[in-house]
Amino acid sequence: MDTIMREQLTAIGGYERCVTEFVRVSQTILPKRVFYRYAPELAQGGLTSSGVPVYIQLLGSDPDLMAANARRAAHLGAPGIDLNFGCPAKTVNRSLGGAALLRSPQLMRSICRAVRDTVPHSVPVTAKIRLGYEDDGQFDSILDALAPVGLSELTIHARTRRQGYRPPAHWGKLKNARQRLSLPVIANGELWGVSDIARCHRVSGCGAFMLARGALCRPDLGAAIQAHYRSIDPIPFTWDHVRELLIHFLERNQLQYDARYAVNPVKQWLVYLKIYYPQAAALFSTVKRLTCSEDMLAALGSDALARAA
Ligand SMILES: Cc1cc2nc3c(=O)[nH]c(=O)nc-3n(C[C@H](O)[C@H](O)[C@H](O)COP(=O)(O)O)c2cc1C
């Protein structure tokens, strides 16, 4: 997610770490401004305003270039570097980036090792993988390749690249990973609610979780999970709260990006929100053809919507 979404979600709470969108590393050591664009938080110690560290995510396949860019990111104050070995996008995979590297465990190892050896020891290096490319036949080889490289954590999206985003996520496979590795394994995939966390924990044994779409559908998901495990009452998060967030989100997007495009991220977010909030589905139908921020703001603040809530 981008900085605006990170800011909003971490303010609600429940998150210990964020990761930027991926920074594509292909031919050069990227200029500082690129890192600042992906992680404006670098200007405030690499933390969101709520104090949550934002790791910079790199995607590429050249070990030396990845290492050089990681060094620059660390130099600029990134609190951690995360390496992407899971992106399924065809354009990325064609140039041997993201999930394509799952077919080359030794190259993955070289990338991780080069980055780990180059970045100061105080800066954690983490990675995110899937179970495999076509199938999970090489999963053990991938884990064995990554075991000795000094990663601080490994997040595993419990599906192959071929499985894309199709449910289910195969959390059971993470048990094997935990047994094979001596570093923390973070579970990812199909974590939509508090009960999924409990089931994933039971099946995988993992005690740390990465949320993606679930966090977009339900902005208080992290906070609700933390409240559940700390046996405290969750703070109710109503549709009215979501509407306020949407208004704030639009205003921030207007400031950050060209005003003509500020409505688009709002529409994209509504597509996720409507999975959890029926009111978001109604709102999406109303605003899907809007192109003007003022109209969008009026729709978000309209009395009709407030009454629907
Ligand atoms: C909009 C969007 C952007 C994503 N960007 C990245 C990314 O930059 N790097 C990455 O490793 N995974 C990325 N993912 C995949 C998620 O991190 C996650 O692995 C996947 O969505 C499965 O988790 P979920 O079922 O909780 O959504 C993205 C997913 C979505 C929906």
Q: Care to give the gist of this entry?
A:
The protein has 15 helices and seven strands. It is of the alpha/beta class and 309 residues long.
Structure description:
The protein has 309 residues and is an alpha/beta fold. The chain folds into two domains: 227 residues, TIM Barrel; 70 residues, Bacteriocin As-48, Chain A (Up-down Bundle), CATH 1.20.225. The protein has 15 helices and seven strands. It has a seven-stranded parallel β-sheet with strand order 1-2-3-4-5-6-7, with helices on one face. Helix 8 links the parallel strand 6 and strand 7. Helix 3 packs parallel to helix 5, helix 11 packs antiparallel against helix 14 and helix 12 packs antiparallel against helix 13. The chain is globular. The structure holds flavin mononucleotide (FMN). The site of flavin mononucleotide has 16 residues, from strand 1 and helix 9.
Secondary structure blueprint with pairings:
Layout: H1 3-12, E1 18-24, H2 32-38, E2 54-59, H3 63-75, E3 81-85, H4 90-94, H5 105-118, E4 125-130, H6 139-146, E5 153-157, H7 173-180, E6 185-188, H8 194-204, E7 209-210, H9 213-217, H10 221-229, H11 239-256, H12 263-276, H13 278-287, H14 293-301, H15 303-308
Helix pairs in contact: 3-5, 5-6, 11-14, 12-13
Bound molecules: flavin mononucleotide.
